[in-house]
Specification:
This protein is α+β, with helices and mostly antiparallel strands and about 180 residues long. The chain has a single domain, classed as Gcn5-related N-acetyltransferase (GNAT) (Aminopeptidase, 3-Layer(aba) Sandwich). The protein is built from eight helices and seven strands. It has a seven-stranded mixed sheet, sandwiched between helices. β4, α7 and β5 form a beta-alpha-beta unit. The radius of gyration is 16 Å and the shape is globular. The model has no long low-confidence stretch (mean pLDDT about 95). Bound molecules: coenzyme A. The site of coenzyme A has 19 residues, from α2, β4, α7, β5 and α8.
Length: about 180
């Protein structure tokens, strides 16, 4: 099988492929389809935010194997305000002024573990706006997951651990690092 192609997507590209994108998201996170379907409106709204960038990974037939997107994080946005409340006061400026939020990064299960997530992460963050990048990821025992390995190997450090978002029982970690990615 030849190597998947990485493509930069405009907001219109992402929204135009939303069914495929949501199918990858549901499979990667093992979420029920109706829960993922509820994300449709959010993603469409996210695509209009300042600093929006998206990447997709396509197989030979052009089918979506993975995707990632993010935008500039600003106060008034739900995630930003939740995270702000959880970060120690003295650390807020460091992490929240001029921050790029990596919102979603997913690879369909059959394509995982072959470097695609790494390519998507680098492609998305290469040239991304912002002084730092922030993301949230579910806590897993001993940080044993592909997502955790990926972020740790790219220099992401703890910003908040064991964070609870309203309406979600699972604890999340907020991880971050400086931008650009090429300088440690
Ligand atoms: C996280 C995700 C996007 C990574 O994509 P991927 O294509 O699997 O990533 P890669 O193949 O580039 O591998 C990433 C890291 O996981 C490691 N890895 C590969 N297979 C692994 C396995 N079975 N167990 C643990 N780590 C593994 C890789 O070695 C790499 O780490 P390294 O850079 O230290 O070597 C993808 O696995 C995914 O969609 N997971 C489910 C959804 C998810 O958790 N998304 C992120 C939510 S914030």
């Amino acid at each position: 099988m030849s190597s998947p192609t990485l493509v930069r997507w405009t907001a219109e590209d992402l929204v135009g492929r939303l069914d495929e994108v949501l199918a990858v998201y549901a499979a990667a996170m093992d979420y029920p389809p109706d829960l993922v379907s509820a994300r449709r409106g959010f993603i469409t709204a996210h695509a209009r935010r300042a600093g929006f960038r998206a990447v997709g990974a396509l197989d030979e037939q052009g089918a979506v194997l993975g995707f990632g997107y993010g935008y500039l994080s600003h106060s008034g946005q739900w995630w930003h305000d939740q995270v702000r409340g959880a970060i120690r006061r003295g650390d807020r400026r460091r992490w929240l002024s001029d921050a790029y939020e990596l919102v979603e990064l997913h690879v369909t299960p059959t394509a995982q573990g072959h470097g695609l997530g790494t390519r998507l992460l680098r492609g998305l963050l290469d040239g991304a706006p912002g002084r730092v990048v922030l993301l949230s990821t579910p806590e897993v025992p001993d940080e044993r997951s592909r997502a955790w390995r990926l972020y740790r190997s790219h220099g992401f450090v703890d910003v908040v651990r064991q964070m609870r978002f309203p309406g979600d029982d699972r604890p999340f970690a907020i991880l971050g690092r400086s931008l650009p990615l090429s300088t440690a």
